[in-house]
Amino acid sequence: MTTANLLDFDLEGLAAFCEKLGEKKFRATQLLRWIHQRGASDFTQMTDLAKSLREKLATTARVEALPVITQHESKDGTIKWLFDVGDGNAVEAVFIPEDDRGTLCVSSQAGCAVGCRFCSTGHQGFSRNLSTGEIVAQLWFAEHFLRKHLKRDERVISNVVMMGMGEPLQNYSALVPALRTMLDDNAYGLSRRRVTVSTSGVVPMIDRLGDDCAVALAVSLHAPNDPLRDDLVPLNRKYPIDELIEACKRYLAHAPRDFITFEYCMLDGVNDQPEHARQLVELVRRHGISCKFNLIPFNPFPASGLLRSPQPRVLAFAKALSEAGLVTTVRKTRGDDIDAACGQLAGDVKDRTRAAERMAQRRAAEQRPVVLHPVRKTASQEH
To answer: Which of 42, 106, 149, 280 sits 20 to 30 Å CA-CA off 80?
Structure first.
């Protein structure tokens, strides 16, 4: 008999499941607390449930985590887990401890179909979407492992970022119930400000997320103009920059924060020149959007053909944005000694799209690592 994995259900889904068993809806809240607050997977432990309900659950339901293939701990305290999701596929989650928070980076897909030039996950191609239960299981395992590991009774993970493997908004139907479980006071009780969805720019789903479950939004921008972004983030060919920025402005009406975060991976000689900083300032001013920029040091990998921008250039870029009135931070690199830093998550995903081969052919045709499109001068710069 097939049993339901209760990690697949948010409170509403759990209530519907209880009703099918002939139970009252309030049982769903009890179950949510046992599973997510206490980390229970054995129904016999759930002592405030009626014995008859526990017996029903034993034959109809389960709480099933993902098998852990490997666990690596960095010298800076970052921990990376590789989880088995079947059929030779695996996904990674990363815990990043800081003085004032504990952040878990969660994956939404096995692989990624977007194929950004600077992302090692994208170079491995796309296998499949994760289920809601597989997304939540990363948080469920990490939270309760860390409590034991750190010998703490209180919550360890205060922030979740959907910045692991995959494009979250291309797995929307599984993402939203997972987010609702993260936010539920009977589960993890995270603030909407402390749950962030990162997207490369799936415009229609940005609008839907604003209506359905508005959390903090981070957008992988990485370029100030369409020709360059077309090359770095292929999704831009479908949803160009101006269309994306307008979607971000609409999202602000629902967002828990009064700004959108733009992620910007600094690539040596590609998108890190003074004219690119000027174009970013012009872009923001033209659209009048409230935002902050997070400059990300690139973590090189052999298949990319790209290099990290030198630190002085990154700092000069940040200074140019800051002096123009844009809030700008430079992300600290964490966990790079265990390949857990931004853009390094690759797991054990099979290259079913032959992405690495196609990228190699493209670079060979170009006869250089990346195309740097000429910067278009504005009328004011021509005079």
So the answer is: 42
Per-residue pLDDT for 328 more than 80? yes
Average pLDDT over residues 139-165: 96
User: What is the end-to-end Cα distance of the chain in Å, rounded?
Assistant: 76
For residue 164, the SS3 value is coil
Q: What angle do CA 174, 147, 80 make, to 5 degrees?
A: 60
- What is the CB neighbour count within 10 angstroms for residue 318? 19
Q: What's the token pair of residue 255?
A: 């967002």
List pLDDT tens digits, range 312-324.
999 999 999 999 9
Phi and psi angles of residue 228, each rounded to the nearest 5 degrees, phi first:
-70, -40
92, 143, 167, 263: the active-site residue: 92
Place of tokens 């290099």: 307
How far is Cα 181 from Cα 158, in angstroms, rounded to an integer?
A: 14
**Is 92 a known active-site residue?**
yes
Please, what is the average pLDDT of the chain?
Answer: 89
- Choice among 116, 248, 291, 342 that is catalytic: 342
**AA identity, residue 253:** A
CA 367/CA 356 separation, integer angstroms: 16
DSSP state of 308: B
Q: Cα(178)–Cα(108) distance, rounded to whole angstroms? A: 10
Residue from 154, 162, 122 nearest 138 by CA: 162
Lowest-pLDDT range, 117-131, 177-191, 215-229, 369-383? 369-383
What are the CA-CA distances from residue 369 to residues 18, 200, 240, 295, 345 (Å)? Answer: 56, 22, 23, 21, 21
The reported pTM is 0.88
Pick from 297, 310, 349, 369: nearest CA to 130: 349
How far is 215 from 209, CA to CA, in rounded Å? 8
